[in-house]
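dumping this here so i dont lose it
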């Protein structure tokens, strides 16, 4: 591969540069354990240190580690099955495109069938609740091991295979963001696999385990628990249904595959996104019918905005002459692409984030207002999406220049109309 395709050095460093990249791999796992332990305390408080803290030796459990590896192995095996269509990813620096098999939904259905058979055969899924901290620890160990492997192998790949966002030359930073863009073992794409399958489907399995634990303790699941399970099931099914859309995200196009995504996808998502269900096991809550109905409506509103905004942009990007989007007002850019400036994308510059945040709030509300812990997700997610919006804005400004400035002038608010 000639120098023509060499990836330029990444000069604009994010997440606090190498210093942030050094601390985050310690801070993020500690946050996961803290939240899981706090969830089990009587007070369920985010502010007081859970006690007694488990000894480090109590965190390691070989069975939990094997279970986590077995889970990744099962999802990898399902991902390799020759079912589902094969699609092309975005064009790479050298002009080529990678092929991806779209079968996340098939993996979900197969996993559900296997789980159903297991439950009929006497599998006690609720034990996931009792061993959640050990499972999270095992997943953290696996995420670190994967990140070390990824960084090691990235040192031997051609420069054209490196990530635009993870080629700073600083090993700590590149380890964190990810040095290689699309690490593959044969045709198996490691980053694409981790983005949606083990973490998202694992999140649902943990939620279901919490529901079963609650049923064991109280005879039946509470309305609050059922709502949390259903809302998050809808969200994950939507992501799997629209799996192809992940191929255009900055995670796939810009960031490499390193600790940030490995830990985020495999450990952070399943163990912190399931916090509300986990919390409800030790903090039961009765919901009045009207409150439950109001929360369902809020989630439906969030989902409506999220889905319509994402679909409108995806339809437009696939075919601007599609009758569903052809009447929308646009701004031309020097790249030949256009920017939508009416419809959902004329309301705010990230209407999809707005819908996502409304849903995040609806997932926390079933847990009541007495504790801050179940609101961790919506708080963290607000910070994540504000930061992500800033990253995307920066990339778009570089890509579209004055056309982007014009868009910002026409649509001044980023996420929340008239607020931000
Ligand atoms: P987006 O779907 O928001 O895409 C941003 C891109 O859209 C831009 O880079 C630009 O790319 C294009 N774009 C921006 N404005 C316009 C416009 N006016 N007209 C046409 N195209 C435009 O990216 P994300 O990956 O951040 O989000 C995807 C979804 O995933 C969101 O709904 C988000 O909420 C969700 N998400 C969820 C997470 C979770 O943990 N639950 C984490 C991250 C995201 P281009 O011009 O090149 O097409």
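and the seq i came up w/
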């Amino acid at each position: 591969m000639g120098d023509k395709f060499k990836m330029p050095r990444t000069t604009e460093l994010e997440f606090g540069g190498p210093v942030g990249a050094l601390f985050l791999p310690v801070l993020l796992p500690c946050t996961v354990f803290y939240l899981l332990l706090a969830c089990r305390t009587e007070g369920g408080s985010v502010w007081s240190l859970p006690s007694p803290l488990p000894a480090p030796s109590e965190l390691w459990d070989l069975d939990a580690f094997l279970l986590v590896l077995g889970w990744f192995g099962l999802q990898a095996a399902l991902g390799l099955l020759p079912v589902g269509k094969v699609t092309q990813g975005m064009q790479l620096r050298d002009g080529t495109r990678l092929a991806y098999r779209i079968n996340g939904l098939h993996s979900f259905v197969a996993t559900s069938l296997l789980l159903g058979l297991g439950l009929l055969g006497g599998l006690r899924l609720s034990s996931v609740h009792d061993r959640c901290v050990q499972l999270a620890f095992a997943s953290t160990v696996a995420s670190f091991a994967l990140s070390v492997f990824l960084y090691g192998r990235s040192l031997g790949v051609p420069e054209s295979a490196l990530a635009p966002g993870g080629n700073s030359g600083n090993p700590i930073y590149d380890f964190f963001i990810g040095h290689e863009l699309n690490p593959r073992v044969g045709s198996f794409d490691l980053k694409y696999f981790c983005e949606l399958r083990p973490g998202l489907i694992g999140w649902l399995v943990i939620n279901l385990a919490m529901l079963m634990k609650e049923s064991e303790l109280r005879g039946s699941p509470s309305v609050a628990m059922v709502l949390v399970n259903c809302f998050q099931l809808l969200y994950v099914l939507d992501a799997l249904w629209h799996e192809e859309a992940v191929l255009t995200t900055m995670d796939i196009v810009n960031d490499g595959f390193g600790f940030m995504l490995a830990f985020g996808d495999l450990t952070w998502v399943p163990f912190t996104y399931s916090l509300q269900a986990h919390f409800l096991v030790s903090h039961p809550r009765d919901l009045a019918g009207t409150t439950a109905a109001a929360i369902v409506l809020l989630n439906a509103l969030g989902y409506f905005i999220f889905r319509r905004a994402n679909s409108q942009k995806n339809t437009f990007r696939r075919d601007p002459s599609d009758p569903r989007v052809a009447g929308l007002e646009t701004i031309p850019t020097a790249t030949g692409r256009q920017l939508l400036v009416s419809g959902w994308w004329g309301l705010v510059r990230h209407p999809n984030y707005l819908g996502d945040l409304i849903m995040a709030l609806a997932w926390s509300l079933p847990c009541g207002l007495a504790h801050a812990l179940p609101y961790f997700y919506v708080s963290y997610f607000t910070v994540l999406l504000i930061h992500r919006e800033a990253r995307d804005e920066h990339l778009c400004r570089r890509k579209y220049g004055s056309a982007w400035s014009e868009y910002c002038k026409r649509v001044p608010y980023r996420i929340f109309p008239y607020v931000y």
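The beta strands are 86-88, 99-101, 184-185, 188-189, 330-332, 338-340.
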